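User: Reviewer 2 asked us to show a designed sequence for the structure in our supplementary figure. I'm pasting the structure tokens here. Could you produce the per-position amino acids so we can include them in the response letter?
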């Protein structure tokens, strides 16, 4: 908003013109307005990126709806000539799809619940409680992020084998009870923005640390907690190496391993359209999860805090 001085008749004192309200829509972060050409260019870039990221999903869907004959056509068709919706029902009958789906769902839900609880407690200790050596221990936790997975693969397998937990879901679920470095870092950075005066006032009033954590900090950190839940769900749902190493019984396998079994059943190649149909069914829960918690996901990633 600008204020234009005007001169009143018979007076040397400038008089401010009435302020005009202008919308903040279309403004840049610094307060300046975005030109029409720049606005159209930015929208065009976003549209192009959206199309590029949507192409694999679109190709998967149309391939799942085609017939084997149409899939063999060259050049490939961009739209199915005949919609074969029965490909989805055929895809779940070629292999025990729903058994693998149930196993993946149980493991994923368990990992999400344990990850949220354990990482929140550890991050609260690093962000909201003062104790000697806190920052040094936190640096050690961050150092675990630089350990590649192959380094810990054999020792972890020997550890779980010595406990007799191979061919069980325990090696896939139990580690979630111990906080991870990235999730702890994300939650700690979010919790550092919680006003300390609010927590100190609660302590003066006699509130326990558990009460402060679950009644004050947890509602505030809900966006970051949602991000952790989504990341944990996606990582566990798509995990291939863990089930491949620890699970040997087919009745305990997950969808990630089942898709590999799906490619060759009874020594016969499964049609590509059924493979795409099964892949699309595996992808649907993750898409629903993201769109259901999109608002919390974006706010948690940007680490929004108090004003």
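Assistant: Here is a per-position design you can include in the supplement:
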């Amino acid at each position: 908003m600008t204020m234009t001085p005007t001169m009143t008749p018979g007076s040397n004192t400038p008089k401010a013109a009435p302020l005009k309200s202008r919308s903040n829509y279309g403004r840049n972060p610094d307060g300046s307005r975005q030109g029409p050409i720049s606005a159209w260019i930015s929208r065009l870039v976003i549209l192009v990126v959206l199309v590029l990221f949507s192409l694999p999903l679109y190709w998967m869907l149309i391939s799942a709806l085609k017939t084997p004959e149409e899939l063999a056509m060259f050049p490939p068709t961009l739209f199915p000539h005949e919609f074969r919706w029965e490909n989805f029902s055929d895809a779940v009958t070629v292999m025990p799809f729903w058994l693998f789906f149930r196993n993946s769902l149980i493991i994923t839900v368990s990992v999400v619940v344990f990850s949220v609880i354990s990482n929140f407690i550890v991050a609260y200790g690093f962000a909201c409680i003062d104790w000697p050596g806190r920052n040094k221990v936190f640096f050690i936790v961050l150092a675990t992020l630089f350990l590649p997975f192959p380094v810990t693969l054999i020792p972890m397998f020997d550890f779980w084998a010595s406990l007799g937990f191979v061919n069980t879901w325990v090696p896939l679920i139990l580690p979630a009870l111990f906080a991870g470095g990235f999730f702890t870092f994300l939650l700690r950075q979010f919790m550092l923005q919680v006003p300390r005066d609010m927590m100190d006032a609660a302590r003066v009033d006699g509130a326990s640390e558990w009460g402060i954590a679950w009644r004050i900090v947890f509602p505030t950190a809900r966006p970051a907690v949602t991000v952790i839940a989504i990341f944990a769900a996606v990582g566990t749902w798509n995990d291939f190496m863990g089930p491949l190493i620890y699970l040997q019984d087919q009745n305990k396998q997950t969808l990630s391993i089942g898709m590999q079994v799906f490619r060759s059943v009874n020594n016969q190649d499964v049609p590509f359209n059924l493979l795409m149909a099964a892949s699309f069914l595996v992808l649907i829960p993750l898409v629903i999860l993201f769109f259901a918690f999109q608002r919390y996901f974006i706010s948690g990633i940007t680490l929004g805090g108090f004003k």
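For the response letter, you might also mention the following. The chain has 15 helices and four strands. Strands lie at 5-7, 14-16, 264-265, 268-269.
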